[in-house]
Amino acid sequence: MFRGINRDLLELVRYAESECQAWYNARDTEPVSPQVQTNEETQALSSGDICMVDGSWTSTAQFSGMGWVWKDTMGKIHLMGSRNLQRRETALHSELEALQWAMESMIQHSYCQRFGTDCKDLIAML
């Protein structure tokens, strides 16, 4: 039973990671000129490691889920975490707690200081 839950949670974290990366890329990309860019030029646009964060929440569930993924400039995953806790009051509470946990984890395990989230309320609050 736990193996299936862990697989589902990992799949959810990977989906959240891809959503967060898509949002981050859409927010930070500059208009590309019609000429073709090489890999070296594309890599120069990247500005370092990032820890992408997501929380999940529904009003009827008993638990809230959260996860984070630390990726380098090449997209290689170095570390990830996921867990569930008793359901938080709101989705924003869940997202904020996920960010706090990710920040604490990055202080312990890396030098990463960039964080991404798909929660526009959390972004506006920060």
Named CATH architecture: 2-Layer Sandwich
Q: What structural category arises from helix and sheet content?
A: alpha+beta
Give the total of domains: 1
Low-confidence stretches are: 31-46
- The fold-level CATH name is Nucleotidyltransferase, domain 5
Strand content: 15-25%
List the helices and strands and how they pair.
Elements lengths: L1 H27 L10 H7 L4 E7 L6 E9 L5 E10 L4 H19 L5 E3 L2 H6 L1
Structural overview:
This protein is of the alpha+beta class and 126 residues long. The chain has a single domain, classed as Nucleotidyltransferase, domain 5. Helices cover 47% and strands 23% of the residues. The chain contains 4 helices and 4 strands. It has helices spanning 2-28, 39-45, 91-109, 120-125, and strands at 50-56, 63-71, 77-86, 115-117. Strands 3-2-1-4 form a 4-stranded mixed beta sheet, sandwiched between helices. A hairpin with a 5-residue loop joins strand 2 and strand 3. The chain is globular. 22% of the residues are buried. Mean pLDDT is 75; it is low at 31-46.
